[in-house]
Amino acid sequence: MAHALSADGWQGERRRAFLAGLSPALAVLLLITLVPAAALLVTSFTPLQLTDPSGTFRFDDPLVNYRQLLHDGRFLASIAVQLKLSASSVLLQLAAGLGLALLLNGKSRVLEGARTVFLIPMVLPPIVVALIWKIMYTPDVSPLHRGLEALGWPVRSLIANPDTALWAISLADTWQWFPFTMLMVLASLQMIPDDPIEAATLEGASRWQLFRHIVLPYIRPVLVVCALFRLIDSFKAFPLIYVLTNGGPGSVTEVTNFYGFIQAFNFSYWGYASAIATVMLVGVFLLSWLVGRLGWSDHDKR
Amino acid sequence: MTYELSTFDRRRRGLLQAGAALGAGALLPRLAAAQGGAKKFAGVTLNVSTFSAAYPTLLQRWLPEFEAATGAKVNFDAPSFPVYNQRADLELSTKGSAYDVVNVTFIYSSRWINSGWLTPLDDFIRNPNLTAADWDVNDFLAGARAPETGRDGKLYGIPWTAEALLTASSRFDLVEKAGLGFPDTTDDLVKVLRAVNKKERVAGFVADNHYGWTFVPYLHAFGGDVFRKAPDDLFPTLDTPEAIAAGEYYANLLKEFGPDGAITYQPDQVTQALKLGRVNFTDAGQLHLAQLGDPATSKTIKTVKFGLVPKGPAGRFPGTAVHGLGIPAGSKNKEAAWAFIQWALSKQTTGRAVAAGYGSPARRSDIDSTAFREKQVINGSDLAKLSLDSIELAAKTGHMKYRTVSVYPQVDQQLNKAIELIASGQLSAKQAFQQAQANTIAELKRSGAKL
């Protein structure tokens, strides 16, 4: 009994020591993550606007911004645009990243070189990527447009056409971020043990069957993680939209993030913009939770 | 190598400073006297911020002279226009002391001035100990001082640029070949564009897609307006038949005569397209248009022609814009800041800028000087006269008052969107302008404006 008590005491002491060691880091973490988030939430309950500082700590109608959001057509439309952009760009990135990873999965020097080249878009600063695509999408100076015209397939400006502007942004975003999926999938592919593949090959499995029944189940958790990361990041889309279309033509490329930016930085409605940001935050949490619940990333179920 | 470079750099800087100190004695005797002797501000650090433009660039180059004369150290930051505005708007709203001198941006001027975020300059100007006798505030155009003046009648900014929106034709030779003259009315403009569009692969018309600036002269010309009566009655009037007709007319210019992707053109793209002769007509600020007279980069210098914005059924209403230097209410170095503004906009400095090719001064003495007038005549068109006529017209009619009300940035956005929606075929002019009206009312209500 005494022995058990002393063990418990030692365990408890160890736990307390760990906690004491961790507490400074936890305090800093709380300070730099939770406090700004709380400030955002509190601001969203006020009518704060820069031209009227008296609204800073006014809480007489805390839900006014959220009520207005429900009737704000531009905000609701921005959510639809956001979902379209996020879904299309994430799917394209997964497809392109996976396809290229499968093609580049090998041990030759050429493949190694190619892998490095394909990583370039991801390491470029976002504003540089936006400028590259601004040139690509400006018919007068674009090598893309000129090339197509020389081939007899002239294409009108993609970013000035409301039917193509969002897809043009999605394509540029895919170009920048498919290397992320490619890199993750490549790493995962190189971890696949040779035995099951050899066994299946001996049994006469085709390349498609190998991919479908061995490779895909193995890399599926990585694909889910990539999708989740890219999905969360896609909600932060900004430089491409700012430089390429400024949310237009009209509002066809105005995503929620960009609309929040306009409310805060062009119109100075900080309370309203904070409410938009809060709704986005909740939306991203919900989406992440949903993706996690789908269970695709669960190793044990295989 | 690094050492050699840094030594060279130090020597060069030393020489520049010594030269500047010598030059400053000659250039700034009055300023120094008015400030109570040289080196009055030794130890003071001034933080100056404007957006990046020709005049601030010249000031940055001549800064060592001011520093040598006063002893103050100046940090001069000049980011791009939107970045500057966002940064300044935020900083001024806190009444913080991060900046000592700021640019008073035209569309924000009423918001910044009437919210009490800037310092009135009248006392500095009146004080003979702080301002040189010959500095002469009345030399700045009255039309340029008006937007820098608050409701209290006090002056909050000293204008460094007063520019007008003018019409330009980069390939006027094509117009002449068609047997037509420079379009004077909105009807003439369409007639001319029909005659020259796509001739020699030159598109007819394009404008900066900041339509809250480039479209408004047409809105006024058709008899419409942005508000019922700015600044007193801010009820928006974007759904009137006149506004809808103007929107349809203007969006059609872009749709029918614009180059591919016309609605994505930003100011520099417009200037470039005209310099290279890819597009014939535009409406743009004088500062941008003056670049068409640069023999090194403009291919259309021999064929360009400028004129006032076209007259519509209701008359002619050129757009004008004024930017000035002001002192934030929270600045802790107001006297030194005033010394800087006084130096930056003294007759000597503005005259020197004009001599260096600056194209948009706000001092009457500069505008009337032969040095300026000679440079502003490009292929026979006198840009300075056109600009002056526009500014005087705007001062007379008061039609630019819409632009300096505190909620204009909200309406500005709606106009940009409305023209884009019509030109890209998403909505009819009526639908687009009714939507702009409804959205503007919602935005203004959110701002607490009484409609």
Give an account of the 3D structure.
The complex is a heterodimer of chains A (302) and B (451). By secondary structure, chain A is mainly alpha-helical. Helices cover 73% and strands 0% of the residues of chain A. Chain A is flat, with a radius of gyration of 25 Å. The two termini of chain A are 45 Å apart. The mean pLDDT of chain A is 88. Chain B has 451 residues and is α/β, with parallel strands linked by helices. Chain B has 21 helices and twelve strands. In chain B, the strands form three sheets. In chain B, strands 1, 2, 3, 4, 5, 8, 9 and 10 form an eight-stranded mixed β-sheet that branches. Chain B has a two-stranded antiparallel ribbon with strand order 6-7. In chain B, helix 12 packs across helix 21. The longest helix of chain B has 26 residues, at 2-27. Classes of the chains: A mainly alpha (302), B alpha/beta (451).
> For the record, what CATH class of chain A applies?
Mainly Alpha
Category by helix and strand content of chain B = alpha/beta
Strand content of chain A: under 5%
Helix amount of chain A: over 70%
User: How many individual β-strands of chain A?
Assistant: 0
Please, what is the average pLDDT of chain B? 88
CATH superfamily of chain A: MetI-like
Major sheet attributes of chain B: 8 strands, mixed
Total number of beta strands of chain B: 12
Features:
heterodimer; A: 302 residues; mainly alpha; MetI-like fold; 73% helix; 0% strand; flat; B: 451 residues; alpha/beta; two-stranded antiparallel sheet; 21 helices; disordered N terminus
Would you spell out the secondary-structure blueprint of this structure?
The complex is a heterodimer of chains A (302) and B (451).
Chain A lengths: L1 H43 L19 H7 L2 H32 L4 H15 L2 H12 L5 H8 L14 H25 L4 H9 L4 H28 L4 H6 L11 H11 L3 H24 L9
Chain B lengths: L1 H26 L1 H6 L10 E5 L4 H17 L2 E5 L3 H13 L7 E4 L4 H6 L7 H5 L15 H4 L12 E12 L2 H6 L8 H11 L6 E3 L5 H4 L1 H6 L5 E3 L3 E4 L4 H17 L9 H9 L3 E7 H5 L14 E3 L12 E7 L7 H11 L2 H9 L8 H5 L1 H7 E2 L2 E2 H15 L10 H16 L5 H19 L4
Parallel strand pairs in B: 1-2, 1-3, 5-8
Antiparallel strand pairs in B: 3-10, 4-8, 4-9, 4-10, 6-7, 11-12
Helix pairs in contact in B: 1-3, 12-20, 12-21, 20-21
